[in-house]
Amino acid sequence: MTSKGIAFKTLSYLVLLALTVMILIPVLWAFAASIKEDVEFYGSPWAMPKGIYLQNFADAWLKANMGEYMFNSVLVTALAIALLLVIALPAAYVLARFRFKGNALWNTMFMAGLFINVNYIIVPIFLMLNNGDKAARSMFGHPILLNNLFVLALVYTAMALPFTVYLLSGYFKSLSKEYEEAASVDGAGYFRTMVQVIMPMARPAIITIILFNFLSFWNEYIISMTLLTKPELKTLPVGLMNLLAAQKSAVQYGQLYAGLVIVMLPTLLIYILVQKKLTQGMTMGGLKG
Prior knowledge:
CATH class: Mainly Alpha
Distance between the termini: 37 Å
Structural class: mainly alpha
CATH topology: MetI-like fold
Shape: globular
Oligomer: single chain
Largest sheet: none
Number of domains: 1
């Protein structure tokens, strides 16, 4: 290796090391702060905890209602991902494998959806749902669209559909058609071929889109805050912001950082468990026959 190559490699490692430190220090500091007693925050912010004070997590879970917010986030995220897979997998498979009238139009529409940020159109969405609730009040006597976790999951699904279909259809196109031809010879129909042949082969891509969308749904704040106004229906990010506002005067920083750790921990654990599959889903294609 030449001296220039060694210098470039050394510089690359130094940059990666600096980025790693920049990411790890805030995360580790939040974990350390979550087990401190409140009096410890009046000293040096970089001081290590004197002990492990787990009461912060109990207070955040029970007194600050983080447990209730956690349940709402889990329910909404699970519903949104399930709906997304049910809609996006067949849509991506059809767009990738079949040619029909309107195929190019649908592909263009999904690609155009990649450039739409739902946060910028949340006001029209809110007004549309609010008008729907006005009609629901006249018909059923009560609103059914706003303050509804299932409707929030539907909005999340629509928000993630363009990216998910785009990624999955690109992956399906990389798979050899010989697998489907072999399944057809064995008597499998289109649906059975998709479920039993194509989807198992596309598992890395499916895991990738599940992880990406989980992170997006789990940490989403603006849409949840707009469509859910009842305190008992709030999700974790909104609940954490409410906890932050409440602790400004209460000075219970340990409870605040414990709530932050409760929000971060699921995403960190899931990423650690599936990081290998995530890499495969982004880089690996099907075998060409």
